[in-house]
Amino acid sequence: MATLRTSVLNIEFENPFLLASAPPTALVESIENAFEQGWGGAVLKTITPDDLEMIEASPRYAVLKSKDKIIGFQNIELLSHKTVQYWCEGIKYLKEKYPSKVIIASIMAPVVKEEWQNLVLAINKTPADAFELNFSCPHGMPEKGIGMAIGTDAEISSMITGWVKEVATKPVFVKLTPNVADITYISQAVEKAGCDGFTAINTVQGFMGVNLETLEPNLNIDGFSTYGGCSGTMVKPIGLKCVSQIRKTSDKPILATGGMSNWQDCAEYIAVGSDALQICTEVMLNGYGIINNLKSGLLNYLNSKGMNDISELKNIVVPKITSHEELNKKYKVCPNIDSEKCVLCGKCVKICSESEHSALSENNKQIVLNKEKCVGCSLCSYVCPKSAISMKKV
Ligand SMILES: Cc1cc2nc3c(=O)[nH]c(=O)nc-3n(C[C@H](O)[C@H](O)[C@H](O)COP(=O)(O)O)c2cc1C
């Protein structure tokens, strides 16, 4: 029988599922509720110095839907509105009541050594398991020179990591932003500065769209809007890319976050190099109770693969991600059309001809492939409404 127990930097996790720093971890009593329901741990909503101004806008969210399902948020929420003392007492309370749960203190401060170190010194005195440095909030904070303004600058990120490491008595994870050309440029810089691990990714900066009736932004604050942090299913490919890129350049632990909505997403993140998982948007849409399916799904999967724990799944796909140059260009696939399933709708023929290749045609009530013209791109198999096309190696 497989187990979900895992260990990261000697911190014991009863399961690898953590709540990411966000509204579901904004109150001690909410975290208590989540722990009761089975979450392995929580990253607290980002704690800041008490005097850092934090004025929220309303509304805070816009959503992207596919059919009727929400597949992503744009949010412009700021950081925790609770005091440092509230969190220090809260961590102590939670750890006493739930000693087996992991608590990570997310922190952010202005670029002033004393401000970062004061936060660390206060939290050092609590039983929190680790720090997470929020160098990556993409809205509001960068305008004050913090959040993503730190995480897009290797020099400032390294300097602050150094300040924190000087005084921290617990492991330090740096939460990275995907809003850079190359996330490993920053991850390698903070690793050199001494961080113990990474969290990736924070939200992807975006603009959720325009209401074409009113000609106002979808995220409409009294007729105006701003760029915000996108999260949920729509950012998963960006998260998987960033986590695997960091893994290719570092052996340090990675806490993955970005678009996980079911156990399969979580398993994929482990396969590309994650040590544990953090979830926010899916919890905000469906509640803490999703933990039951996450745990049973991942456990069943490990058992079905004959794996004892997630360490056997970790990194498996990383060596299979390479450069375009190194891909085998002699490998080719071509469509195989199941005439029983095909309803001759002509979609594959049209798309193939309008996307350069014209390798498919209809002849005698059959779709016919011209192998000379086919480049094996696979587009036809994705647009077929009847799943009648499969790609076969030639
Ligand atoms: C409303 C909202 C508030 C958030 N607040 C914080 C925060 O205070 N600190 C932080 O590090 N990340 C924050 N995040 C980012 C999440 O922790 C997480 O990294 C991101 O949403 C990607 O995960 P998801 O796709 O599971 O939501 C917030 C995200 C959302 C949607």
Descriptive report:
The structure is a single chain. The protein is of the alpha/beta class. The protein contains twelve helices and 20 strands. The chain has helices at residues 28-37, 84-97, 113-124, 148-151, 154-167, 183-192, 236-249, 263-271, 281-286, 291-304, 347-354, 379-383, and strands spanning 6-8, 11-13, 17-19, 41-43, 61-66, 69-75, 102-107, 130-134, 172-175, 197-200, 204-206, 210-211, 216-217, 228-231, 254-257, 276-279, 333-337, 360-363, 366-369, 389-393. An eight-stranded parallel β-barrel has the order 3-4-7-8-9-10-15-16, surrounded by eight helices. A four-stranded antiparallel β-sheet has the order 5-6-14-11, with no helix packed on it. Strand 15 (254-257), helix 8 and strand 16 (276-279) form a beta-alpha-beta unit. The longest helix is centred in the first third of the chain and has 14 residues, at 84-97. The structure holds flavin mononucleotide. Flavin mononucleotide binds at residues 20-23, 45-46, 73, 75, 77, 79, 106, 134, 137, 175, 202-203, 229, 231-232, 235, 257-260, 279-282.
